[in-house]
Amino acid sequence: MITLKRLDQQDARLLIEGAAAKAREIGIPMCIAITDESGNLIAFERMDGGKISSVIVSQDKAYTAAAARKATHEYNAACVPGNLVFGIHTSQGGRLCVVGGGLPVVVDGEVVGGIGLSSGSPQQDMDCAQAGIDHFNSDRA
Amino acid sequence: MITLKRLDQQDARLLIEGAAAKAREIGIPMCIAITDESGNLIAFERMDGGKISSVIVSQDKAYTAAAARKATHEYNAACVPGNLVFGIHTSQGGRLCVVGGGLPVVVDGEVVGGIGLSSGSPQQDMDCAQAGIDHFNSDRA
Amino acid sequence: MITLKRLDQQDARLLIEGAAAKAREIGIPMCIAITDESGNLIAFERMDGGKISSVIVSQDKAYTAAAARKATHEYNAACVPGNLVFGIHTSQGGRLCVVGGGLPVVVDGEVVGGIGLSSGSPQQDMDCAQAGIDHFNSDRA
Amino acid sequence: MITLKRLDQQDARLLIEGAAAKAREIGIPMCIAITDESGNLIAFERMDGGKISSVIVSQDKAYTAAAARKATHEYNAACVPGNLVFGIHTSQGGRLCVVGGGLPVVVDGEVVGGIGLSSGSPQQDMDCAQAGIDHFNSDRA
């Protein structure tokens, strides 16, 4: 039997709080998705003004980061024609997302969930995802 | 040009609060999904212990209730073999959900969103969805 | 509660009229799709001779332009390997379309819908989409 | 943070062993799928002669039993026209399977995985799934 850790609802709210605070700071209303370590949704918030297309994209980023245990921007860097990773972005009907903005949530070296942001530029999405993780980590410290 | 109303994030939190309170009262951790009037997700919460399969089912119930402007249990009653509605449950890859637990959110006679609950029996899901709407309405009163 | 504006059927007809006039001028029968601000179809016309595959492509272009509030050719310019946006084109089963020919419809700074054209070259599709918007705007002026 | 238990590879092999032994006894080569508690595949075996269509069906049964924490034949009993559960069988593109032959794997009152069998009659599938669980439990006793 395997014993594993998974984000709970309180953890998810911390991640969303941190990400939303950064999104407000930069003035971009975001879609924010939090998944468990298997990529299944725990919590989601579309800030007022977040993009409709980002509802799915943010969830796919969080799914990818958690389920593949890799930041989506790292997949993006590797997913170039000629590289053997290229093509991974069409997997699972495109659910495996290689657009920047998805980060695994790591506790004690173990992936316990994922956070995905969408509505800004990939760099803005990444910054807000990181802000979510920073807020989560500082609360746990 | 059409002018319409749509739930905002604060409205969505009220709906979730009311539904979650009822879910705690009956001891069934639920997945709770809130969509706008077009069926696109605004907010989602998987209470600790909510079922994995309910992540999608709750969203599909909320989508259906909002987009079709009809409670999913009303579709369920009509979706019986021999009735001309039968078959609607396979529409859109099954996203159109006829299982009880999805309710449209109505303000001033206009559908402004949907709420979908899943993890309990359909009746429990319906009760919690109604509790969400009651809480939302009492706050607005 | 959010109050928002959405194209109505009369608006949609204006957009199609302008796009179809341009399509006739350049001699390319087109598929023309108009969506609301959430990306859901309001009106569609396959001019006699329009391509079958364009039935879906035109809708996806209109969906993307509205739901992501961005012209599909702008996504196209950013969606190159090595750029952090790369991969967005496979999102939602490929429904998020980065082929030129989809434009958001903007009124008073707010996205109220989308127009998507398909059957010609991307530049022809873009020209016809723009012609639809020009006709719509001149009617409102 | 939530701490949970999940089947490991050794557990999965025990479940398959028990199910395959029963399948050989009744002379029906089966597809046997084992998932974790979230419904994701851990192990799979298509016995020589197992049906091709059962490759997916067995996985969907195991997914459903684990993710919904319910035997698929229990869903089957409730999923009759006029019952509020009716329609659940088309959810998630039909992945939520209500055909008999999927059972949750429970340890200390907690669902830690799922087993799904397909290729025989539903009753045969159910018998083999149960045999897998019996073998797993007797090994742990």
TrEMBL record, chains A, B, C, D:
Segments forming a coiled coil: none
Protein name: DNA polymerase III subunit delta
Organism: Marinobacter psychrophilus
